[in-house]
Design brief:
Elements lengths: L7 E6 L2 E6 L5 E4 L14 H24 L3 E12 L2 H5 L8 E12 L3 H14 L1 H8 L4 E8 L3
Parallel strand pairs: 5-6
Antiparallel strand pairs: 1-2, 2-3, 4-5
Length: 151
């Protein structure tokens, strides 16, 4: 399969930025928390990172479900992680500059048998590009999925 190119162009002042997505009719606005010099008028890059993880898990779950021959009726993801800003703000190299203890909690509504549900969860963790980025960065990931049977 050929590679798919993703590209963005960002420009801004201070810590706020407008990011144009190549080929799209929309832009992404980012800002930072006041402690980092921002006004918190838009999500921070770190908030977008966690949102990307949530969304990527959902997209990948649909792809994997199709491969497994199961249907997902609904999904809910809660994603949380701890971040130590010391390296970013002070330059000290002794601290990790990425997220730590990433927690993904999901409720997936599907009538899949238990063995296929477990396979769905494991395959999403293995195949989701954003999850893989976190894993390769050495971030500890807790991935707890709960199956909800359709009404």
């Amino acid at each position: 399969m050929p590679l798919v190119n993703f590209a963005v162009h960002g420009k801004g002042t201070g810590v706020a930025q407008t990011v144009a997505v190549s080929g799209a009719d929309y832009v992404i606005e980012t800002d930072a928390y006041p402690a980092f010099g921002g006004q918190d008028a838009h999500p921070s890059p770190l908030a977008y990172t966690l949102a990307s993880l949530s969304s990527c898990n959902q997209v990948t779950a649909q792809v994997v479900a199709k491969d497994l021959g199961i249907t997902i009726e609904a999904v809910e993801f809660d994603v949380a992680a701890d971040f130590n800003p010391t390296t970013m703000t002070t330059g000290r190299e002794s601290d990790d500059a990425t997220f730590q203890d990433l927690r993904i909690t999901a409720e997936i509504t599907t009538d899949a048998p238990a063995d296929l549900f477990d396979r769905l969860r494991d395959e999403v963790a293995r195949r989701c590009p954003v999850s893989v980025l976190f894993a390769r960065a050495g971030v500890k990931i807790t991935n707890e999925w709960t199956q909800v049977k359709p009404s």
